[in-house]
């Protein structure tokens, strides 16, 4: 039996400032298991893009192989998309970004696609600080192949039918910080109030933005013995200073003390709740960010929120000094300036 969304759209659906309704950011009906955390992440991506008034046709969706890599079909149905081979999404994203840097690149991957077969690709796209958003749907198992442990499965954690994992796990946030990623955050698929602002902030970041989202696999890895289950994450989460993302408009100001929460009214009539950190974690320091992750890890807690931000980001195009005009827009004369220019270039190396 096939399932399709109804084509009828209510004429009075609210529109954002770009003229789009929320339906314009949706995709096909999900075929994932009912209750899968990945569907919650897809919904958060839809909300983030709608609230940021992003033009869907300016987004390029990239993915590899796995349950997570199916999700680009479920959001931004009017966007460009490319489903690559297992673990090779960063290479495809890099090539596309080099050809046209004016588009918004959104890569979706899983813990297997990133931390195992795609580990080498992930490391290098992070250290190059490619201008893209890299969302990891992290469920600690290979859900598409019946629930085997992945490289992010915590030592001692056990899936529904498995034995406790005897190997050390890979923390992809720590790895991304160490490799020089400009923006690193962690969220939980079951907490949209935190996840949507994290995704909005990542989408506006210039450079490589990683959002590692703990996303429980309801079929194979949602038991009390699993550290990627809904109940375990809810019981062991520790959040950094949390906040919402406000796009630039007429300034909104407020004052409140450290360690307290303040409600702020927005231009659209909505309300956000700001929590001022006590500055115990310096997210601009790579060393402090890694220390904080390790501290909470030793305590058996999962640190969420914005973990690291590089205050002086230089993305790949800045590092390589590429042309301001996207490569796909250059003329034949610009790409092949002739023999005289070639000879001048060769003289520089003699």
Question: How would you briefly describe this protein structure?
Answer:
The protein has 12 helices and 12 strands.
What Rg is obtained from the alpha carbons, in whole angstroms? Answer: 21 Å
CATH class (first level) name = Alpha Beta
Shape: globular
Share of residues in strands: 15-25%
Individual helix count: 12
Write the layout of secondary structure elements.
Layout: H1 37-51, E1 59-63, H2 67-70, E2 80-83, H3 89-99, E3 104-110, H4 111-115, H5 119-127, E4 132-138, E5 141-142, E6 148-149, H6 172-178, E7 183-188, H7 192-203, E8 208-214, H8 230-236, E9 237-239, E10 261-265, E11 271-275, H9 286-298, E12 302-309, H10 316-320, H11 332-335, H12 339-347
Task: Describe the fold and architecture.
By secondary structure, the chain is of the alpha/beta class. The chain has a single domain (22-240, 281-320), classed as Thiamin diphosphate (ThDP)-binding fold, Pyr/PP domains (Rossmann fold). It contains 12 helices and 12 strands. The chain has an 8-stranded mixed β-sheet, sandwiched between helices. The chain has a two-stranded antiparallel ribbon with strand order 5-6. A two-stranded antiparallel ribbon has the order 10-11. Helix 1 (37-51) crosses helix 7. The N and C termini lie far apart (69 Å).
């Amino acid at each position: 039996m096939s399932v399709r969304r109804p084509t009828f759209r209510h004429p009075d659906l609210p529109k954002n400032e770009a003229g789009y309704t929320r339906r314009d950011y949706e995709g096909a009906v999900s075929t994932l298991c009912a209750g899968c955390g990945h569907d919650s992440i897809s919904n958060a991506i839809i909300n983030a893009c709608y609230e940021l008034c992003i033009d869907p046709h300016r987004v390029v969706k990239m993915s590899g192989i796995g349950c997570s890599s199916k999700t680009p079909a479920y959001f931004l149905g009017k966007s460009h998309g490319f489903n690559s081979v297992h673990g090779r999404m960063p290479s495809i994203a890099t090539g596309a970004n080099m050809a046209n840097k004016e588009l918004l690149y959104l890569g979706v991957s899983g813990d297997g696609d990133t931390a195992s077969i795609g580990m080498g690709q992930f490391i290098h796209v992070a250290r190059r600080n490619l201008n893209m958003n890299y969302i990891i749907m992290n469920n600690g198992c290979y859900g598409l192949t019946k629930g085997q442990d992945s490289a992010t499965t915590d030592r001692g954690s056990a899936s529904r039918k498995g034995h406790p994992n005897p190997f050390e796990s890979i923390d992809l946030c720590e790895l991304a910080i160490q490799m020089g990623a400009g923006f690193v955050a962690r969220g939980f698929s079951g907490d949209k109030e935190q996840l949507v602002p994290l995704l909005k902030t990542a989408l506006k970041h210039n450079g490589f933005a990683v959002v590692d989202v703990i996303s429980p696999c309801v079929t194979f890895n949602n038991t009390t013995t699993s550290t990627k289950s809904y109940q375990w994450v809810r019981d062991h989460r520790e959040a950094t200073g949390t906040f919402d993302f406000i796009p630039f408009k007429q300034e909104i100001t407020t004052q409140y003390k450290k360690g307290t929460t303040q409600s702020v009214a927005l231009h659209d009539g909505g309300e956000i709740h700001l929590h001022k950190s006590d500055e115990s974690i310096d997210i601009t320091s790579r060393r402090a960010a890694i220390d904080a992750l390790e501290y909470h890890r030793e305590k058996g807690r999962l640190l969420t929120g914005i973990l690291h931000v590089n205050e002086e980001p230089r993305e790949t195009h800045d590092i390589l000094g590429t042309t301001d005009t996207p490569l796909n827009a250059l003329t034949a004369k610009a790409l092949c300036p002739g023999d005289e220019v070639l000879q001048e270039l060769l003289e520089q190396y003699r």
